[in-house]
């Protein structure tokens, strides 16, 4: 169960930041190949964001 996102959303919302995008890099502890795959996917999501 993920507890960080709701908690941080509440804190940032209190500060006035409500339009948040969460990007996850899951599987980092599963070895080198899985780590690189997860990081590449996270970087691709970041690159796809438009500001």
Task: Report what the structure shows.
This protein is an all-alpha fold and 51 residues long. It has one domain (4-48). The chain has two helices and no strands. The chain has helices spanning 4-14, 32-48. The longest helix has 17 residues, at 32-48. The chain is flat and about 40 Å long. The protein starts with a helix and ends with a helix. The model has no long low-confidence stretch (mean pLDDT 92).
Summary, kept brief:
This protein has 51 residues and is an all-alpha fold. The chain has helices spanning 4-14, 32-48. The longest helix is centred in the last third of the chain and has 17 residues, at 32-48.
Notable traits:
55% helix, flat, 51 residues
Radius of gyration: 14 Å
Average pLDDT works out at 92
Number of domains: 1
Order of helices and strands: HH
Give the low-pLDDT segments: none
Note the gap between the termini: 30 Å
Shape annotation = flat
Q: Could you say which structural class the secondary elements and strand pairing correspond to?
A: mainly alpha
Biggest β-sheet description? none
Q: How many helical elements?
A: 2
How helical, in percent, are the residues?
40-55%
Fraction of residues in β-strands = under 5%
């Amino acid at each position: 169960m993920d507890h960080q996102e709701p908690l941080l959303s509440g804190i940032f919302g209190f500060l006035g930041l409500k339009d948040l995008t969460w990007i996850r890099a899951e599987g980092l502890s599963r070895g080198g190949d899985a780590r690189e795959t997860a990081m590449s996917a996270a970087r691709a999501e970041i690159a796809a964001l438009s500001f």
